[in-house]
Amino acid sequence: MVEDKNEGWFENWFDSPYYHILYKQRDFCEAELFIDNLIDHLKPEKHSKFLDLGCGRGRHSIYLNKKGYEVIGSDLSLSNIKFASQFENENLRFCVEDMRKIKGEDQFDYVLNLFTSFGYFENEVDNYETIKCVSKVLKPKGIFVLDFMNVEKVIANLVVHEIKIIDDIEFNITRRTENNFIVKHITFSDQGKEFNFQERVKAITLNDFKNYFDVNKLKILHLFSNYNLEKFDLNTSNRLIIIGQKE
């Protein structure tokens, strides 16, 4: 029996327990390092309000809240939000929300979209709509932090095939580029069943992001290459971290 989870991949895959097994190395230490460096750089006021957009299980939201900030984490995955909700308190809340349809206006001092939680949509209009929503919910002069892969380096060094064995599950992973998307196929067997998942992330360049930001009145202030916030280089950087400000 083959269970095909390619259709609506981001809803199916992010709701799957196997997603969290495959990426279990993304631990709280990494999240805390990034948040600490962002706070040192941005120097938010104590009363600042954050939206963690595409929050997953809430590792960044939880740590931000521990640092004393009011945080709302939103994600399309119901299972992620159910997990994160156990950490809720008076100043930390989680909700199921589509990033293309964020509600509200002038609500947040900071919006974060971290660890390539963008570029999943087939329709380019949806990318613009998401950035439009971000700009709308930011207060005037509010800050948007977007953390994406550096597609130039990823494509130039694409690992076509690899096998990862985690928790006695052998994940067979293949990658390719297709119609300006970076496509990852993930197949494995567990408990007598065969599974087939897919990730599709648009190969969004820095120039693309500049267009998204310009149209939605967001000014790019800084570009960084990693979670230590070192200077971005188009050819060598692993990440593309953009700090933008609402005009």
Main attributes of the structure:
single chain; 247 residues; Rossmann fold; 7-stranded mixed beta sheet
What does this structure look like?
There is one protein chain. The protein has helices at 9-14, 17-22, 28-42, 59-66, 78-84, 124-137, 151-156, 206-215; strands at 2-4, 49-53, 70-75, 92-96, 108-113, 138-149, 161-166, 169-178, 181-190, 193-202, 218-224, 239-246. With 247 residues, it is an alpha/beta fold. A hairpin with a 2-residue loop joins strand 7 (161-166) and strand 8.
Present the secondary structure layout.
Elements: E1 2-4, H1 9-14, H2 17-22, H3 28-42, E2 49-53, H4 59-66, E3 70-75, H5 78-84, E4 92-96, E5 108-113, H6 124-137, E6 138-149, H7 151-156, E7 161-166, E8 169-178, E9 181-190, E10 193-202, H8 206-215, E11 218-224, E12 239-246
Parallel strand pairs: 1-10, 2-3, 2-5, 3-4, 5-6
Antiparallel strand pairs: 6-12, 7-8, 8-9, 9-10, 11-12
Helix pairs in contact: 3-4
Brief description of this entry?
With 247 residues, this protein is an alpha/beta fold. 29% of the residues lie in helices and 36% in strands.
CATH architecture of the largest domain: 3-Layer(aba) Sandwich
- Give the mean pLDDT: 94
In sequence order, what are the helices and strands, one letter per element?
EHHHEHEHEEHEHEEEEHEE
Instruction: Tell me about the largest β-sheet.
Output: 7 strands, mixed
Q: Considering DSSP H and I runs of 4 or more, what fraction of the residues is helical? A: 25-40%
Gyration radius, rounded = 18 Å
Q: What is the strand arrangement across the widest sheet?
A: 4-3-2-5-6-12-11
Q: What is the name of the CATH topology of the largest domain?
A: Rossmann fold
**How many domains would you count in the coordinates?**
2
CATH level 4 superfamily of the largest domain: Vaccinia Virus protein VP39
CATH class of the largest domain: Alpha Beta
Give the DSSP E fraction (strand runs of 2 or more residues): 35-45%
Large-scale geometry: globular
Helix tally?
Answer: 8
Measured distance between first and last alpha carbons: 53 Å
